[in-house]
Amino acid sequence: MMTGPQCPETEAQASGREEVSDKQMTVAALRRKLAGLSAGPGAAPAVLPVPEPIAGLLPRRGLAPGSVVEVSGAASMPAALLAAVSATGATAALVGLPQLNLAVAADLGAQLDRIAVVDEPGVDRLEVASVLLDGIDLVLVAVDSVTPSRARVLTGRARRQSSTLMVVGPPGCWPGATVRIEAEVSGYRHVPARRSGYGRIGGLEMDVRIGGAGLAPRSTRCALTENDRLVAVAAAGQPAVRLAVAN
Amino acid sequence: MTGRVLALWCPDWPAVAAAAALGPDCGDAVAVLGSGRVTACSAAARRAGVRRGMRKRQAQSLCPDLTVAPDDPGRDGRFFEPVVAAVSAVVPMTEVLRPGLMVIAADRAGRYFGGEEELAEEIVSAVDACGVAGRVGTADELFTAVLAARTGTVVPPGTDADFLAGRPVADLVVEPSLSGPGRDELVNLLWRLGVRTLGAFAALDPADVASRFSADAAVAHRLARAEPGRRPSRAPIPPGLEVEHDCDPPIDRIDAAAFLGRRLAEELHVRLSSASLACTRLTVQAITERGQRHSRTWRCAEPLTPEATADRVRWQLEGWLTLSAGTADAPDSPIARLLLEPVEVIDPGALQYALAGEGLPRGGPGRTGLGDPARRALTRVQGLLGERAVQVPVASGGRGPAEQVDLVTFGDELRPERPAGAAWPDRIARPWPARLLAGHAELFDAAGDPVRVTGRGAFTAEPVIVRSTRHDYRIDWWAGPWPFGIDDGADPGVRSAAVMARTQVLLEDSRALLLCFRGGRWQVEGIYE
User: Fold this and answer.
1) Chain B contact for A112, CB < 8 A?
2) How far is it, in rounded angstroms, from Cα B474 to Cα B469?
3) Can you give the pTM of this predicted structure?
4) What distances in angstroms separate CA A143 from CA A159, A166, A177, B58, B433, one per listed residue?
5) Between B443 and B321, whose confidence is greater?
6) Does A147 touch chain B (CB under 8 A)?
């Protein structure tokens, strides 16, 4: 007798919950659709991704479009950043960086077909970089020194085009860089052991320091490890974080 | 989204330029005559009663000591060039509407200098240093800013319409570079209809204006309502429109430059018209033999005609080649290259052109993952540096660290030199050195004798010292050598010269190098870093 009136009520509640969950599911599905629409095939994401160990140290866990990033020290760092960016479908260009080994970037997961290279940019490499900022999401340019006025023009250009300029050079070469990343090799990993005439180099560890305008200096240690066909940058002491599998 | 625009207006510019050209012996009263009528006069002449549109005789009767000069746009442009240079030293991005009037996007520059007033002061003092009087006005829209510059006012953000409301309707024609043909008739008609102020004109319904007056009236109506008149084009500019010319022999004379400018202007307009486009903003760039660049952006109300384009090229080059001689910005060598580049084009037909991807390597053998904007930028760089300057990487095969990626000219077929999928048994193990080098090195043992690799693939002695770039480094650790085949090109008589091997060494300053032994010599191939 008592169950009679209760049953319809619970049913109503249940159906109400179902409606709610239906609504939430619809909203979620629409959101997914919307995200798919706005991202589009090959569209650049809101923030250019960076390797996992560094992401935690950066605001918004990536490189903001329109910013200038100064990278100095070990060449593995620009290679890893290039790999992380191009792996997501963003385009990148290298200006005056013939020494950077793209094979390292490719092993770290870079999509080579999204990269363009201008090895000999002529007398004015910043001019070339500023042209490339028009249509390319990440422009890496090797710079020794730059006048503040020139840097200002390039910074403004990057901001207007919402492209990221990555300056590879000595520390402090770019006045007013948004983010400064400095990587220094702290040691090598020898496989299987360190003994002269025996084994080989199986990886290296880097001290990474990150600073910049409005960024408290912070640092971490990364390891570039070797794993048959997989190379990853991982925080030392932690299990290796897989960045991407080559091929 | 409102951007602030700052306009710099030099009053009576043709008269000022004429006075400067005539030198100190002309009086204060100067008038410029075009088609027999006064087109501009100096302040002193105006005080005496000289007005625009007067005949020469009438003007001279009012002001007996009036100096009369013929109209010469080239002279105006030439003498405005130092002013542009001075302002460009304050704010790099400037646009010249006509000689005597230029506009600057003021929001970012204003923030940099700490305010629009400060920016205006900077610009006015920079112009004063050239010995020219200039007035500055700031507003949200270009047209309002140009009007505000005439009175030297700063129109607060969002109050453009209020500022314009009280202005007479004749202000629509006061600036020739912002008014299209037939604007005079429109102003006359509005006056006769009883529309006396811009505010009254703005109060009309846009649909009524568009249906009853000419197309230019609709543009004028937008100006009067302080609506964004001509926004900077966000539509992509189709590639391959730029006209570039390598001057051979290089040009150092103005007449040759003007002649070339006319030819390039014709060529540019053939390209534009074949793309059914018209250009409203144009960047003219001149590059000297030593790579010095001189670039200016010109903006105009009406689409540029070939003649107008040629004039702008001539003004710019004349100013650069003559007036700035002796200064730091003077050309260091004759002009080797001229580049006309449309910055803003109008006409929706542009979209068709962009879809066709004219002039871009796309599809076919050179297909890459680079999208349209990226290809456009890369093509522009190819235009600047030459086709072979832009390359794309493609995975390749090989035994050394530098052979893993081949560079192919952008647009060519993506075919690696060596197959990437092959086995490559003697390939050096990962990881690769991140920095590639190609420098000579020498290896020495403890006794100071050079270390080589024997035909059996071993060191002649244990290496202790690496000498590279005239420095000796002690070796903390070494591994190898790992032979990777026989050098086919080596002298068959000397067996050890044919050995090729790689070795890793760790230096005392904790850098790990990859060394390569080939042809009896050591080379630094890369640094692990």
Assistant:
1) yes
2) 14
3) 0.51
4) 19, 10, 13, 64, 21
5) B443
6) no
